[in-house]
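DM from R.C. (forwarded with permission)

"hey, sorry to bug you on a friday — could you get me a structure for this? deadline for the figure draft is monday and I only need the backbone to look sensible"
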Amino acid sequence: MGKTLIITEKPSVAGEYADILGVPKRGQGSYNNNEYIITWCVGHLIEMCYPGVYDEKYNKWRMEDLPFLPETYKYAVIPNVKKQYDIVHSLMNSDEIDTILYAGDSGREGEVIIRLIRNFGGVREGIDERRIWIDSFTEDEIKRGMREAKPISAYDNLAGAGIMRGIEDYAMGINFSRALSVKYGSLLNNKAGTKKYSAIAIGRVMTCVLGMVVRREREIRNFVQTSFYKISGNFGTEGTSFSGEWKSGKTSKYFESPLLYNEKGFKKKEDAEKLISELDDSTAVVLKKDKTSEKKKAPLLFNLAELQAECTKRFHISPEDTLKAVQGLYESKLTTYPRTDARVITKAVAGEITKNLSGLYAYTPVSEFVLKIRDEGLYKGLEKTQYVDDKKVTDHYAIIPTGNVNELSKQSDLNKKIYDMIVRRFLAIFYPPAVYDKVSLVTGIKHKEGDFTEEFYSYVKVLKEKGYLEVSGLPTKEKEKKEEALNDGDSEGEVSDNEALLNLLSTLKKGSSLLVNKLETKEGKTTPPKRYTSGSMILAMENAGQLIEDEELRATIKGAGIGTSATRAGIIDKLVKIGYLTLNKKTQILTPMLFGEMVYEVADMAIPAMLNPEMTASWEKGLSGVEAGEITTAKYEETLNTYVRKYIENIRHKDLSRELGSRLEMIKKYSK
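My reply, with the result:
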């Protein structure tokens, strides 16, 4: 009987398999015993060839050679990893092997790494090829993955989608970058004043992200601050008082008046002051009171995008740094697979969740919470909650702790903080909701003349039962102010003790009379949209559908984002490295560089679809169709080629130099 060959994606992972299976290391590039040989890749071992490999003429960038769309794409071994490739290739064709277990990362990119090696060098005929698909590196999960490994053919569609993604990025990048550089590269470099010529780099996802940042910057640049004037009232009874904000309702003299900036304020201060002078401020009356209890459940579990956004917010680190950290936690068996879009777990995982819970008792900061969950049986019935949904899990479920804490002490301080976040988000789903008491009040003041009544709105919200917040932590003071401020956040309020204010408003009844202590105007100012941070950009990329105005198209591509969980951080990082965007390391705010904004202008004039989320998300949706077996790779490639040919012909036959030059001059003025 022959041996089983296990091929992992990294040397460290091969070491994990070797430890679990008791395979000693012998020689270079593999572990070996009588039953197993374990070897590894070093990430990608095979890459797509540049056009010059097909024909030397393509080493020069010329419009007449475009579009470059070969019938069969060529691949080659990456030179600096050739030694390891030769080892892997030799073993895949060895008479000593009768079974191969492919143990690359369980995702599209991990599948591509495997398939490119297999497709390039081949596999000895007769070998049984199987794919290990796991969610963590714990011993139980690895052994389960080996037991349940499916034939590699079960992942053919996933591999097809991954390989087509590479071809798509290559075809668009090579053709559009060359065409625009040949036609407008010199013009752009001259206008930008570059010391060294820079080609125009275009990419399916990269250019779309650049467009999002530039458009947001221009919204901010063109923003004109506008003042408007609100009216605040202070009302009282027996020595205590509270605030209320005026809003124009149907009983108001100014309902839908052109004098209003919006329903809560006037365009001019004198109009707001005029309204105050028209009111009978001798008394006010309670028109309406609502007292309710609100339950707030723990948020869904972390997927990679949510975790990256939260880490940017809390620790001011980039999505790329977050991915490195959580990948480290995964490889240290502390958490499950990180490159996931799901925020829930499956019923199968929920059925064995006590394994994850029990190990967390050894993590001291949460021991008391784990005990409570166990002793009070809070884990029971988890499968019936919103946190468990098989339909919302494709390749992998949400990021959760494995329960194994052995390697935690070896982690960096940052990794420990991120681990703590993941653990607390996980434990929170077992706790009951937080409960808030809320009171909203509508106070009315009549006009001195006429039957009009002006309404003032007051609102208070107080936490009564901590629920899951015991685990995740109470809101910060800043967040409490936002959540508990009067009038849905429109007033700072007059009473600092929200508990006392809640009690005060609770005692009032419809028809209760109130003193009017003060009526005054308050100036408000419009604010520009916020710049993207690296974290908020990740979420914007994940939720591309929200950026699309067309409702029908938005529904069509629901669930398709810009890029994937595995690639989004790298796209942002690349845009920064090539000088199209700048990233403030302290704030993680993204802004366009001069050259990047000029590239945006070139793309906007020549291939505007590349800047739009709907186009990028539509291609991603198509790849999902390939993965699901709904679209063949041949059909997908045909659509891709038609798209590339169309825009290359447009670039070839339209000369936009004059208008483009004018636009680039305008950009230079703004940049100064």
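R.C.: lifesaver. The chain is about 45% helix and 15% strand.
me: no worries. The longest helix spans residues 156-192.
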